[in-house]
Amino acid sequence: MAEMWISMGPQHPMTHGLWTLKVKVDGETITDADPELGYLHRSVEKMGERRKYFMNTTLTDRLCYASSTTWTHNYVLTVEELMNVEVPERAKYIRTIMLELQRLASHLMWAGAYMPDLGHITGALYFWRDRELFLNLLEVPSGSRLLYNYIRIGGVKRDLPDGFVEKTERVFKLFEKRLDEYADLFENSKIFRMRTEDVGNFTAAQAQNLGITGPNMRGCGTKFDLRKNDPYEIYEEIDWAIQTREAGPGYSDCFSRYMVRIDEMKESIRIIRDCFKKMPKGPTLASAIPVRAQGEAFRRTEDSRGEALMYVVGDGTDRPYRWKIKSPMFTTISACPHYLKGYKLADIPAIMGSIDICIGETDK
Amino acid sequence: MEIKELMQELSALKGVSNASMIRDNVVKLDIDKNSSKEFFTKLRDDFGFEHCSLITAIDNQPEFELVYHFTSVNKSVTVGSTDMSVMMEAHVFLERDTPTIESISDLWGGANWHEREAFDLMGIYFVGHPDLRRVLLPEGFAGHPLRKDYVYEIHEEEW
Known about the structure:
Largest sheet of chain B: 5 strands, mixed
Number of domains of chain A: 1
Strand order of the largest sheet of chain B: 1-2-5-4-3
CATH topology of chain B: Beta Polymerase, domain 2
Order of helices and strands of chain A: EEEHHHHHEEHHEHHHEHEEEHHHH
Oligomer: heterodimer
CATH architecture of chain A: Orthogonal Bundle
Shape of chain A: globular
């Protein structure tokens, strides 16, 4: 049969943000793909060079609306490394709690967006209903619903208010019950498994070489999580374990990537509960924070979507000389021809949905 | 392999200078531009760095600097008895008149778009890259905006 190129996007229900996927099909079978980005490019790196260090946290919040705290945290961590700022112990605990709440909200956002991809519109409403619970929790200390600007250079904006622990515990109790319901609705659903099992496979070796990180890599059974393997904040002192799943020996499919995220949500709850137990009292912001910086620094963190890395070069002034953002999704999307080839055109929403795309951070 | 051994073995390779450890699990070094490809091939095949984290291009005026970050995912290099994964940071310096270097996208598939981005925003040419097009900016855009001598107003009229 004659081959032809089909363009999906930039406005297509599959894309989750503005990007184009051109696929070459032979009948219904995909033989090649060519992703195109840039529709949402806001030149964040260039804008950052004109702003002072502390101003850039408003830009990093807007890198990804579904996971803004993790990006601000990565930037702040890099600048603190550059300026040699010592963060108070209590601020580290609060940061970890906020990061894990953000991870829960981000994974729920993804799960809600994934269900309509598979034709299950009701699933979106269930997951987004729960996401709202966590957005409310994030709103309590920060004051905003999506773009928090809560983590600052040297600590956090303000301490947790009274009653936050009890409020969080109420949400967790409700959410854990609902996770069991979702297991019946999705994991044990024959239709859901037929759409996701043995679709969009890639191996662990492929993932490492192509730059696929985070939950997508752990879906291949690779035990690699930067919270354990390059620990930051207080993840070392907390009692938790890396979650992995496999579709078969050393490879992942859409279902194993779904399950990793569900497991990670349960693990995030465990981390936050342990943080509440061990959290000390004390200040939440360092007293002397420098304005200027000289030298270079990088830090990598485990974003909700994979390995996030920022590299900042300072030239002695109060603005960064060069600020580079590594987005995990940028390389994951670049690898999409490898895990789309050989599958049917109708599988594209299921496959591209399962890798959790966020175009805001990808296009920078 | 222990990270100290790794640093010693790497600094003995051709074209490598200024090797040092900037954190417990990070080795930093400079590489000569002409022996970079040979070095990177060894890094992947002999030392087990199977993941290319990032390629950054910096305009140092006058010369360009490329910073490569690689990660060892399967922990073939260890830091004592900890679980830490080792990273390698390599700096390559390029002259302003000839901002070219050999592509490593045949070694690491993940480097492909990092190189395209460095070409797009900073105008570094990667020799041997299979598909060196702009990735974030539109086709036909003039200039490379992250260069420090880029002037916005001029190009606005052209585009």
